[in-house]
Amino acid sequence: MTVNMPRQETANSPPLLPATDDFLQKCCDLCGRTSFELIGRLDRKRRELHTSVCTHCGLVAHAEIPSEAELNEFYASDYRREYHQEVTPSDRRVMRAWQGGQRILRQLSPMIEQHQSVFEVGAGIGCTVKSFELAGYDATGIEPGGGFQQFSVDRLHAKVEDQFLLDLPAEPTHDVVLLVHVIEHFRSPRAALEHIRAMLKPGGRLYVECPNLAAPFARRNRMFHFAHIHNFTPTTLIGMARRCGFELLWRHSTDDDPNLQMLLGRTDTVVREVDPDGYRQTMTALSRHGDLGYHLRWKYLWPRAKKLSGYLHEYLTAKQYVERLLQVCEESDTHAHPTDRRQRDAA
Ligand SMILES: [Zn+2]
After folding, report:
1. Which of 160, 293, 298, 300 is the most buried (most CB within 10 A)?
2. pLDDT at 134 over 80
3. How far, in Å, from the CA of 188 to the mean position of ligand 1?
4. What is the DSSP letter of 212?
5. What's the CA gap between 67 and 72, in Å, rounded?
């Protein structure tokens, strides 16, 4: 079904949420057009959530974009509990996040000089920021989720502040910004990337990682949930980057990987034209696999089996792993700030 109408007018949609930005309610955040096709009515937990694709550029998003105030409240309080049942992170989550941070450090450190600053937007538990700090970088970050941000400061001694991206000054102070599984959460990825671009020094770079809508594992009825307002294919993510004054420097992932991993460079050029094949690519990706074929494919089953055995390993080793990790972080804090530490302990 193709509709030439404002987003909020899709059939059977629930009452409108208050919108602070009329544009977002009517127009595609990537190309600005107003023609959408409804592609889903339920989220991955079978709750009502309408999802649409822009018939011009292929960007997939909620049919109704939630208000900024509603999202801020959601992330500050309900998000962790609703999606992970954790207000403070479990040992398994910390271990997994630390291994993720180490992986990103390994991927990016050959391309970042030691004197350059690294700033993470949506730092989560703070493991990536701390990994870069321990490797010798000036690493800081922001995380609006109260419990996880508190953990990163209190337990990892990472420099992660409780802040929202758009509240930060748009001044060119950073060399490298990390955006790891965050871009899909913004009501306007374009506004977020434009703000990040303004925060980057000339020659600055942005590393983006997010779920890949075009990956073979992706099925329509399992892919959408409220927290992921936009869903990207390789084409729409690159299009969004170019639209916001970035160019693709390096791509770690292929079109089939479950996550997109791209390093973008700040440029002086904004490319408004989108890939004319974007919509077709999105629709092809969405219809690639039916349920049965999806579950029988070795490409799906083998990673699932590895994941399950990984869970067992995590369960058996996480407690010790995190104890050792927290000890390392504690010692790094003592060495870095001996005076502050003594004053804090005395207090
Ligand atoms: Zn569009």
Report:
1. 160
2. yes
3. 13
4. B
5. 9
Strand residue runs (E) in the chain: 2-4, 35-42, 48-54, 60-62, 117-121, 138-142, 160-161, 174-180, 200-211, 230-231, 246-251, 259-266
243 CA distance to ligand 1 centroid (A)? 11
Q: What is the DSSP string of 93-108?
A: HHHHHHHHHHHHHHHH
Taking each helix axis from N to C end, the angle separating 234-243 and 189-199, rounded to the nearest 10 degrees, works out to 50
pLDDT beyond 90 at 125: yes
The CA 73 to ligand 1 mean position distance, Å, reads 28
- 72 CA → ligand 1 middle, Å: 25
- In the CATH scheme, what architecture does the domain 68-301 have? 3-Layer(aba) Sandwich (3.40)
Write down the pLDDT at residue 7. 42
pLDDT band at 290 (very low <50, low <70, confident <90, very high): low
Question: What token pair was written down for 43?
Answer: 């989220």
Listed residues: CB within 5 A of ion ligand 1: 28, 30-31, 54, 56-57, 59
Q: Is the pTM of this model over 0.70?
A: yes
Tokens of 2: 């193709």
Residues 77, 143 contacting (CB under 8 angstroms): no
> How many angstroms separate the alpha carbon of residue 156 from the centre of ligand 1?
41
Cβ neighbourhood burial of 119 (10 Å; 0-12, 13-18, 19+)? buried
Residue extents of the structural domains in the chain: 2-62, 68-301
CA atoms of 244 and 236, how far apart (whole Å): 12
Check if the beta carbon of residue 256 is closer than 8 Å to that of residue 289. no
